[in-house]
Write a structure and sequence with these properties.
alpha+beta; four-stranded antiparallel sheet; 7 helices; elongated
Length: 211
């Protein structure tokens, strides 16, 4: 999944914040075509899309999928690490929802995202923005986890970065084996959080995941 990043004029002076505009390439959702497709699916499933209770369902479904597939643009804001903070920064329980690319059914849960700062520190709300950037699309949990970690590693350049995602997949809890309440856990770690045993243990301990 490629992303376009547009930098502003950059920091002005040592204490200025640096901002990168983060946008996804425009992926136009044809709502009219999606609405017609949903109506056709209802017919194929033995339902009348013109019935009293289903008359507006194709439009609602098309809009719901468009929202799930369209991340919001945001400014990635970083600040100079003037104090030389070198301990773990962790945002826990970031809620997200995404769409399984195999079944077009939602999976949802929480992401725990941490990093060891180097020269710059990241605005905390931006960790949640990065999760949303990759979650809003057709995904598998393993790739989603890796994309978040890789992106932060590339664009924040910390000493280490770690991501843990816990999610429930409707394709598993509502269909197939119907294992309701089952959660899938995935992780991705880079830098010191991968190579230094003490840092790795601290990260997984703070996320509540035993490794």
């Amino acid at each position: 999944m490629s992303n376009v990043i547009e930098a502003d004029d950059g920091p002005r002076g040592r204490n200025a914040a640096s901002r990168l505009r983060v946008v996804r390439p425009e992926q136009r959702v044809d709502l009219d075509a999606a609405e017609r497709a949903v109506a056709g699916l209802l017919v194929a499933l033995g339902h009348d899309p013109d019935g009293e209770h289903l008359a507006d369902t194709p439009r609602r479904v098309a809009q719901a999928y468009a929202e799930l597939l369209t991340p919001r643009s945001f400014d990635l804001t970083t600040f100079p690490n003037d104090e030389g903070y070198d301990e773990l920064v962790l945002a826990r329980d970031i809620p997200f929802q995404s769409l399984c690319q195999h079944h077009l059914l939602p999976f949802h849960g929480v992401a725990h995202v941490g990093y060891l700062p180097d020269q710059r520190i990241l605005g905390l709300s931006k960790l949640a923005r990065v999760v949303e950037l990759f979650a809003r699309g057709l995904q598998v949990q393993e790739r989603l986890t890796q994309q978040i970690a890789d992106w932060l590693d590339d664009h924040v350049a910390p000493h280490g970065v770690g991501v843990v995602i816990e999610a429930e997949h409707l394709c598993m809890s509502q269909g197939g084996v119907r294992a309701q309440g089952s959660r899938t856990v995935t992780s991705a770690v880079h830098g010191l959080l991968r190579n230094d045993g003490r840092s790795r243990q601290e990260f997984f301990s703070l996320t509540g995941i035993s490794r």
